[in-house]
Design goal:
Elements lengths: L10 E5 L6 H12 L3 E3 H9 L3 H8 L1 H18 L4 E3 L8 H10 E7 L2 H8 L13 H16 L4 E4 L5 H15 L5
Parallel strand pairs: 1-3, 1-4, 2-3, 4-5
């Protein structure tokens, strides 16, 4: 690119399945746009004072999702515009989805399920995948979550390419929407 794009006036919320690169792409996007980066999972852990896996184990997914909803609401309501990597299930909660739609530009990062399964199988920190076949879990999540993800403002197909390719696709889509200078 010949010039750096300007920051978005709104928060840019990345949604998608585990392993799609929301955090990695989000960090790079924030750097390019000169915006702060927030990772909802890390923010939930900081608020709870414990790792997500421990929250799931001790309190269950419903308690985690409630905390996640409150943290995302705080970030979208009380923080300046930033790039936000959400957890894979965050956009499934109707209240969270409505808040993201009202206060942010949502970007669905979408990738092939087999690619995602290979990526997530390299990490042990995903409680919904613990002790299960990642391909089976991700395929089921795709069936359940894709209708909600499809409500995102922007859809970016990613593949087995460098994260910079996804960043460039997001920047192009934002410029087409008039959300950031090209």
């Amino acid at each position: 690119m010949s010039s750096s794009p300007g920051p978005s006036a709104k928060t840019i919320a990345l949604v998608g399945l585990s392993g799609v690169g929301k955090s990695s792409v989000g960090r790079r996007l924030a750097t390019v746009l000169g915006m702060p980066f927030r990772d909802a999972d890390l923010e939930v852990e900081a608020a709870a004072g414990r790792p997500i896996a421990e929250i799931f184990q001790q309190y269950g997914e419903a308690a985690f999702r409630d905390g996640e909803r409150r943290v995302i609401a705080r970030l979208l309501t009380h923080e300046p515009a930033h790039v936000l990597a959400t957890g894979g299930g965050a956009f499934m909660h109707p209240e969270t989805r409505a808040l993201i739609k009202a206060k942010a530009v949502s970007v669905w990062l979408k990738a092939d399920i087999e690619l995602l399964a290979r990526r997530v199988s390299r990490k042990e920190n995903r409680p919904l995948l613990a002790g299960k076949d990642p391909l089976d879990v991700l395929a089921a999540q795709a069936r359940d979550r894709y209708p909600a993800y499809a409500e995102a403002d922007i859809v970016v197909e990613t593949g087995d390419t460098p994260h910079q390719a996804a960043v460039e696709a997001i920047l192009k889509a934002l410029a087409e929407r008039g959300e950031a200078a090209a």
